[in-house]
Amino acid sequence: MLNTIFKADANNPSIKLNEPPHILMLHKNKRPEPNIRCSVINRPRMPQNHDHKTETRLRSDPKVLVFVETIYSKVGRDIAELLVYNRIKYKVEVFGKSLPVLTNLDKGRYGIIVFEDFNAYLQMDKWNRDLLDKYCREYMVSVIGFINPSEETLVGAQLKGFPLFIHTNLRLKDATLNAASQILRLTRPGETVWGPLPGDDWTIFQLNHSTYEPLEWAHRNEEYHPGMIKTPLTTVVEDHGLYDNIQRVIFGSGLKFWLHRLLFLDSLSYLSHGQLSLSLERLILVDIDDIFVGEVGMRLKPSDVKELIAVQSRIQSMVPGFKFNLGFSGKYFHHGDSEEDKGDDLLLENTDKFMWFSHMWNHIQPHLYENLTLLTEDMMLNKNFAKEKGIPIDSGYSVSPHHSGVYPVHELLYTAWKKVWNIRVTSTEEYPHLRPARLRRGFIHRDIMVLPRQTCGLFTHTMLIERYPGGRDKLDESIQGGELFQTIVYNPINIFMTHMSNYGNDRLALYTFESVIKFLQCWTNIKLRTVPPLQLAETYFKNYPDEVDPVWGNPCGDTRHKKIWSNNKSCDSLPSFLVIGPQKTGTTALYTFLSLHPAITSNIPSRETFEEIQFFNGNNYYKGLDWYMSFFPVESNSTSIYFEKSATYFDGDLVPKRVHALLPSAKLVTILISPAKRAYSWYQHTKAHGDLIANNYSFHQVITASDTAPKPLRDLRNRCLNPGKYSQHLERWLSYFPPQQLHIINGDVLKSNPIEVMDEIQKFLKIAPAFNYTTHLRFDPNKGFFCQIINGDKTKCLGKNKGRQYPPMEERSLKLLQRYYLSHNTALVKLLKRIGIRNIPEWLKDDLSDTPT
Question: Is 584 a catalytic residue?
Fold first, then answer.
C-alpha cells in the first residue's frame, strides 16, 4: 500500500502515525521530507505483452471517435483534452439520431469509440445500435464508456441488453487495481489510493457473467466497525466480449480522478491492440535558473549545496543519468553573506557533479538590448567567467532570463547566441504560452531548437512551505496524481524550470522532484532518464517533426508577451487586412486601386516579389516576425491602415492557420473569376514569362497531363487547376475566420465597374469618410480596362504585361474544365448561400449552365 506519512509535530498529539495512511500536514518551520514508500515485495510484474501488440491485423485507423452529449459537456471536454495532451488523433461527434460515416471504402475509420455517456449507447434505436455493433465486430473496434451521474439513484438496475447491474450516486474511498488485468501497462498496480475519492456520484458494477472482470475496486466511504468486513466494489469494469463479441471498458466515474486518466490511456492501448500505446520512456531535465542570483539571506549555503548533491544522488538511483542543470549569471557570484559565498564556492568545487548552462552576465533581459555589440559583450563576460571558474562551456544550451527574446523572437538574441556560445538548443514556456503547461510545443528558428519548458509549481517567490499558494495540500495534490505528476506522464520529454531560491530555504524543489519521481514509481511503469540538452532536443524533434516549423502568434494578444517584446516594436506594424488572391484574378489591379486611397497604406515592396511579401506561404515565413514587420514601418501621427497583397495566399494549405495566429482580427479580401478562365490566364502568364514547359506544351496538353508525366509538367498543371477549387480553399479559410471577416469580389465586376467594387470595399473596411474613386479611375479604351487618372486628364495604366489579349481558349479545353470544376462550382454556390451571399456571380451561373452532361 502507499504509505505517505510525513513527520508529525510533537506538540500536536492529534496527529497519529498509526492512523490509516494519508497525507499528514507539516507544521511551521519544518522542511518537507519525502517519505513515499511503495510495497516492493511481490510487486506484480508488467504483463509479458507489455506493449499490447497482437497478431491481429487491424483495418481501422489509430483514431478515436468520441460521442458527446453537447460540445460543452464536462466529461467530453476532459476526454478531448486528454487525447490532445497525448497527441492522439480523434474526432468529436455530438450524439444524434444518426451515426457519422464509420467506414471509408473497405476500411474502418476509427480504432476506438468512446461514449462520454454510456447510457446514450445503451438507449440507441435498434437500427443504429445494430449498425454500430456490426461495425465494431467487423473491424474489431472496441468501446469505452462512462456512466454519467443521474439525479435518480439506482439500486441494482440492469444495463439495457447486458447481464450487468449498477448502483449509482455513491461516495467511495480507498481505490485499488486488479493486478491481474492485461489492460494495465502504463499504470502500475499493487498500491491503494487511500482516502475519499473525488465526487459523490460514483457508480459501482455487479458482475453476473464471465465476460466481465473488475479493473478497479473501491469501498464505501463510511465508518467501519471492528470486525466489519470491507467488501470491495467494482468501479471500472472490463468486458472481454464473450457475451456479444465486442470488447469494452466501462468507468463508473469520469476523469476527475487522476487514476482514471491512467486507466483510460491503458484502455486505449489495450483495446486498440497497441495502436494507441504511449511510450513508457520519459526524458527529464531539471534546470536551476539563477544559481548565483538572489538576495542576501535567500541564497544557498554549504548545507543546502550538500543536500542538493545528496538528493541528486538519490534521484540518480531512480533516474539514470540524472543531474541538475545549473544556469549561471557570473556577475552575481559572491553576492551573498559569508555563509552564502561559501555555498557559491562549494558549487564550483563540485562543477563536475552538475550540468551547466549560460544565462546573461548581468541577468538583463535580452530584448532590452537593441545593439548587437553590447549584447555579445555581455555574453562574453559570462563566457570568460565560466572559463575562469572551470564551468563547462560546450553544452550548446542556454536559457534567457525570464524567457526574454526566445518567443516572441528577438533576432539579436539568436544572432548573439550563435556567435558567442554556438547555442543549438534553448527552452521556453512562452510558446505558444498555453495553459496548462502540457499544451506547450517546440519549434526551430535560426537553426536553434526551442523546446517547450514545463513548470513544477515553484517560482522565485515560493521558498517556504508556509507561503506556498494553497499550502502543503496544494503542493502534494500536484505531486500525487495532480498537475506535476500528469505533466510527466503525458510528456515524453520534460524540461522543468526552477530557481536557486527553491533549493535553499525550505528546499521545496528537492522535496517536489524526489517525491514526484517516487510517486511515479509507485503508480506507473514509466522509465525516467536524463540526457544532455542537445540529445534531448534531437530526440524531441525526431518524435515530433511537425513541430519544426514555428507558428508566429501576435505578441499584442498576450500581456506576458508584450512585457518581453522589444520596446521599439509595435503591433501598429501589422496589416489590418489582406488581399489573399488567387493569382490571375485581378489582384494587382485591386492593389493599385487600394494604394490610391489616402487612408490605406500598402507594404513596402519586396525586392524578390515586387509588391507581394509572400510571407505566410513560403520560406519567407521562417525569416520571422521582425522581417515581416519591417515591411510596415510606423509613421508618426499616421492614421492609415496597412494592408498587403499576396495572391499565393489563397490556396496555401498552412496559410489560414498562420494568418489567424498572427492576425486573428484581420479582414480578408479575395477575388473570384471563372476557374476555367483563371487556369487559362495562368498558363498564358507563365508562357509570356518564358516558361519552358508552357512554351513546349499546349494548354490542353498541360491540363490533361497524367500523374506519370514529368514533374515540371505536373507542377504547371497543378498551378493551373488547383487554385480554382474555390470552395475547398474558402472552407479552409472559414475554419479559422468568421464570414464577417471575409469579403468576396466578383472579378468580372472589378474589371467592368471597379468604382462600385471599391465603394463596397470601403464599407467592408468601415473607412469613413469614403474616398471618391470616380475622380481617380477612368476606362482606357486602348488598354480595355480602368486606369488611374493623373494630371487631370491623363491615365496611368498597369504595365504592358497586364491586360494582354490571349488567343481564345480551345472549346474542348473549356468544356473539359467546366466538367472538372462542376462539383467545386456547385459546392461554391452552397458555400456562398451559407455565408449570406445571395447574388451568385454571372460567371458562376454560366459555368454551371454551360457544363456539358
Answer: yes
